[in-house]
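Quick one:
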Amino acid sequence: MEKDTNHFEWTHKRADTGECFPADVLLSAMKLDGKTVLQAVVRDISERKQAEAGLRIAAIALESLEAIAITDANQAFTRITGYTAEESIVRLPAACLSPVARTPSSIHRWLI
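Output:
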């Protein structure tokens, strides 16, 4: 270590179960009784990583150029269908299709 501390993310393995998990690691070098020792502080960041992944998926969906309806509608969905976000929430997805696309087979795909 060039500095007295080093901070990074790593994948660790639990000693008791052998399960791997994402971790935040802080290494600190210090002198103890005249000898250099290394202290490691390891924090499980599994929940944070799951939340970040969810936010990335949400950002991709909201910024997509394709029409996407989840429980709300993104800007592309409202632009393509002409429905407001509020209108799209209360409608069956098949009802949001244009009249040209309202064939039994296309509606069936929405209902599956």
